[in-house]
What does this fold into?
Amino acid sequence: MAQELLTGKTAIVTGGNSGIGLEAAIVFAERGANVILAVRNEEKGQAARKGILAKQPQARVDVMKLDLADLASVREFADQFKSRFHTLDLLINNAGVMTPPLSKTKDGFELQFGSNHLGHFALTGLLFPLLARTPDSRVVTISSLAHKGAAIDFDNLDGSKGYKAMKFYGQSKLANLLFAMELDKRCKEHGLPIKSMACHPGISATNLFKFGKRDAPQFLKTLANRLLQPPAMGALPTVYAATESTLTGGEYIGPDGKGQRKGFPAIDTPHSVANDEATSKKLWDVSEELTGVKFDFSR
It folds into this structure.
């Protein structure tokens, strides 16, 4: 294994204020990257930044507002980033919501599909020109074990014909995985120097495990930390996908333990549902149509 130092490189981590996103951001900052915490709640983002700087006073960490459930916010973030930076080495599509009651984004999409997938699809597309001009740039999209057995229900993406929270979470995580693989395929076809890969944290005790808008009771948090791996371990597949020099793009990284639930990062095999070429292409076309964002592979 040869994991790179990141001195002089720029990394965006969506949802970088907590959980595995924060743990990955800490590692990137320690390795010398200029880290952008792209967060919905700027107050929490600033608190995370202060925490990183307390451990690493020389770290370069900025906070920028990004609401993936609002395409206007995604566009504003991309515009502001492009006004400040001309290259982008790492885009970590990490932020996510898990199993809320049926909810909608600002644009009317089902919240999990809209923010977990469509928001990241649009963000990647809008930042794509910077990625394309940056040597050895990478896009890492966080999927989940929940993609197994999931399906993309193109006739009910908004949940109007029935909604089950966990089913729609699995759909959004399958979409993340299909997007990551399709992006890498298209980059290779057009000779672009961008590697796209997916990863998953196994089963990690993060703040995704909430009861609606309420935190889980403390005894459940304690139990979760015993049974599940802590966020720092859950972040290792993200760090590996972002920094391991032997990866060529298109890999799926997860923990190496039993059932891929815990352990150290290794190349994993996606469920067969992630290998459907027709679904990947249709998802790409539908995502472009819904977001109004098209990728420019002409470079």
